Amino acid sequence: MKIETISIQGSSEWNEDALIEKSGAGVYGVLDGATSVTPFRGPQGETGGYLASQLVKKELEAIEVSWWETVHVKDAVLRANQSLRQEMIAHGIDPEDRETLWTTEIALVKIEETRVQYAQTGDCMIFATYKDGTVRTVTYDQLDHIDLQTRIRWKACLEQGMTTRKQIREHVEPHIRKNKVLMNTINGYSAMNGQPELASFLEYGVINRINLTGLLLITDGLFPHSEDIYGTLDGKVLMEEIESKGLQGYAESLIALEQNDPECQKYLRFKTSDDKTGIWIRL
Predict the structure, then answer these.
(1) pLDDT tens track for 204-262
(2) I need a labelling partner for 251 at 20 to 30 A (CA). Which of 30, 45, 89, 225 fits?
(3) Please, what sign has the CA dihedral across residues 191, 101, 82, 219?
(4) In whole angstroms, what is the distance from residue 175 CA to residue 169 CA?
(5) What CA–CA distance (Å, rounded) separates 274 from 223?
(6) 0.85 exceeded by the pTM?
(7) Torsion angle of alpha carbons 40, 46, 48, 49, nearest 10°?
C-alpha cells in the first residue's frame, strides 16, 4: 500500500483542516473545520474550526487498534462528536446555540482485508478507483446546494460592478451566516458540531475491495476550480489530474490559479485560497 498525504494552509489565519492517520488500524481520514458564526478564540487565538478538527483528530488517533477491530467507523465518529460537545460545554459554549458551535466535516475510512468502511459529513469527499479505470464517487457533496446559492449571489455582485472580494463578501455574508443554522437538518447538511442529531444525518457504509485499486479522501479546498458556477465535481477528471501531477502537484496547480485570481472573480469562491488536505491511498 502506498499513501500520499498533503495538508496545505490556505489564506486564512489558521489551517482548520487536519489529517487522520492510524495505520495500525487501517484508519485514514480528512477533516475540514469551520469557524462558528459567533466568533470564538482559544488561549492561543485558535478558531473554533481549528479546535474542532484537532480535537476529533486527536480523539480518533488515540483509539486503540483492538477497539477499531470491533466497531464501525460511524461509531467512532459519533463518539468523537460527543467528545466535541463536552469540550465546547467546558469552554462555556451553549450546545443548543448553533451559531456558537465549533464545527468540522469529516471523511473517514477503515481498510479491512475484503472491504472498506466509511463515514462522511458535509463536503469532505471519498473516491474509489478500480482496475478497469472506473472512478466511483462514494460520497455526496451535501453542501453544494447551499454553496451554489452563494455563488449565484457572488456573480450578481460582480454584475453590479463590485470589484473586490471584501466588498462582495460583505454582501453575501448574511446568506453564509444563515446557512450555519442548517447543520444536521433535513434541508441542510450533516456536520460534526457536538449535536446528537448527527446520528440521524451521518452518511456511512461499506464497499467491498473487489478490483479496488485506490481511495482518495479530500477536503473541499482540493475541488477543481471552474468558471461554470453550476458545474459539478467529476471524480474521473479529478483522478486523472491527480494521477498525472501527484497530490502535491495537483494542489500546487490549484494554488497557481488562485494566486492569479486573488479577488475571486474568475473562479467564484469565498476566500482566495482554502485549506487543502488530502490522502491518496493506492492499494
Answers:
(1) 999 999 999 999 999 999 999 999 999 889 999 999 999 999 999 999 999 999 999 99
(2) 45
(3) positive
(4) 10
(5) 10
(6) yes
(7) 140
